[in-house]
Amino acid sequence: MPMAQLFTMHGAQDALARTFGYPRFRPAQEDALSALACGQDVLAIMPTGAGKSLCYQVPALTLPGLVLVVSPLVSLMKDQVEALSAAGVAAGYLNSTLTPSQQDIVLERARAGAYDLLYVTPERLQDARFEAFAANAPLPLIAVDEAHCVSQWGQDFRPSYLGIADFIGALPARPVVAALTATATPRVQADITELLGLEDAHVTLSGFDRPNLSFSVTRLPTKEKLARIVEHARTHPQDSGIIYCSTRKDTEAVHEALLTAGMAATRYHAGLSRAERAENQRAFITDDAPVMVATNAFGMGIDKSNVRYVIHHNMPGCLEAYYQEAGRAGRDGEPAECILLWNDADISTCRFFIEQDAGNERLDEAEKEAVRAAQRRMLEAMVGYCHTADCLRAHILRYFGEDAPDECGNCSNCLGEGQKTDVTFQARAIMRCVHELRGRFGKGVIASVLRGSGTKRIAELGLDSCRTFGALSGESEALIKAVTELLAAQEFLTITEGSYPKVELGPRMREAAEDGFQLFMKPLTPKRARKARAATPVPTDYDTELFERLRALRKRLADEAAVPPYVVFADSALRAMCIQRPADEAAFLEIPGVGEVKLQRYGQAFLKEINP
């Protein structure tokens, strides 16, 4: 049966230019919108900064009725609505931050047709009042943002997402459904399609590569991490950055160190009151405190476009989480840095969190264990990223099922000046030892046996008579453990769950015995790599003094309107103004990111600053 035409691409293109100030859609946006225009469900996997929100915001301007956006981002909805309102889009939100009377007002306005687009949390879909509203509202399109949250194999599984399909199925007329996410492995993509009930979905996969981001991984003792972070922030005083920490304690320590160094920094973690978290987030968004130190409780869906660096003080538990958090840098498409600092203690912390996690109430014990098992596998992939001597960008892209060249020229490994160590001999010795010990012991015992340790415990266990005893007597315990982790990350070995993880042979074990087997890793104490070159160079042929004046004007106008500066204009728009130097409104409208509403609100002020 042919699908109904919902809107025309000509109308969508007109709305894009008139409202958002962009001359054309990006290829992935156009692909997704073309399918939605024909009434087809869409699964769109588009990296942070690729503009996936336009895939439901533009239809909201062209469709009759109300576009519903399901999102878990309670703390960000207000910012998103402010940004849309600044562009002239009638948008609202409905979540737990509103009082019951405020929620009533929003629903009443929605019934009256005051909104083109309404953000709601997935929990709201189970509210009887909202169900009654939705049953009588014209809903041509429902967009499910952060769609990976529906899958227990993803990094942000939320049980409330499992009720979305039932909500859609109970509506009198089924709307078109768009599921959108920045990161999803093939398995998670399959879960999204099935668990959200997508019908004959068109899949838009724009590619996971973010060429404007440079990646670096550095193994550092815990005490040195703090000094490295302070050094980076001090040498980039005009830049906005996010520093992620795995614990509240580390968050407080890094924040205090930055304040002591004279940096305008703020912090965000679950131990702070809701009011303080909201105020600190406001300070970061408005550039009053350009550096944010936070746990992973912060930032999901953050719209701040001018984040120039993201530093991880600790290794995250999976590549999905890392790439999503690192991807909050450079949303404006300009060069940005993603820096990961890690050590073995981070691995232990991640394993502790996995085993201590009580899971979700909706899952039975078997399902909870399946989630933990998935988290362990994802952790091994994350450890492999830290140890690999190959291109970091290629490692990430291949993890998400995408082909990639062997070198990108814009990561610390590609620019590491030969930082690669052949550990094939050590790897084979470890494999033989694990086989001989029959998977009964952990990394510590394996290292002791291979190093020929004469400890009392080794003797009591009778392990000093093993054939592999002393096979790596000249190597350090740290090296043996690191190679063991790398072998596990590449599935030559398996590290079991529990309080006392054991090392067993993995599914690829036989490959290690083949003639062509080789294993390389980075040295435990590598030289500092050369600074990565910017894949997307920052233009230099513009008046930097004018740029700073425009930034100051933007900040003043944003403060007057009580909105974040990026809501007025992105850095890229300011830079384009400096290069093109528009002299009148017609020329100003040609600046990317300038729509008709922003021209009316801000055009004269900026034109006066550009042409005094």
Concise overview:
This protein has 612 residues and is of the alpha/beta class. The chain is 43% helix and 12% strand. It starts with 8 loop residues before the first helix and ends with a helix.
What would you note in describing this structure?
With 612 residues, the protein is of the alpha/beta class. The chain folds into four domains: 9-205, Rossmann fold, CATH 3.40.50; 213-399, 3-Layer(aba) Sandwich (Rossmann fold), CATH 3.40.50; 421-521, Arc Repressor Mutant, subunit A (Orthogonal Bundle), CATH 1.10.10; 544-610, Orthogonal Bundle (DNA polymerase, domain 1). Helix content is 43%, strand content 12%. The chain is built from 24 helices and 17 strands. The protein has a seven-stranded parallel beta sheet, sandwiched between helices. Strands 8-13-12-9-11-10 form a six-stranded parallel beta sheet, sandwiched between helices. The longest helix is centred in the middle third of the chain and has 23 residues, at 365-387. The termini are far apart.
> Major β-sheet, in short?
7 strands, parallel
Shape: globular
Structural class: alpha/beta
Q: Any idea of the CATH topology of the largest domain?
A: Rossmann fold
Query: How many helices in DSSP terms?
Result: 24
Low-confidence stretches: 529-537
* Through-space gap between termini: 61 Å
**What is the percentage of strand-forming residues?**
5-15%
| CATH architectural designation of the largest domain | 3-Layer(aba) Sandwich
Percent in helix: 40-55%
Radius of gyration: 26 Å
- The CATH superfamily of the largest domain is known as P-loop containing nucleotide triphosphate hydrolases
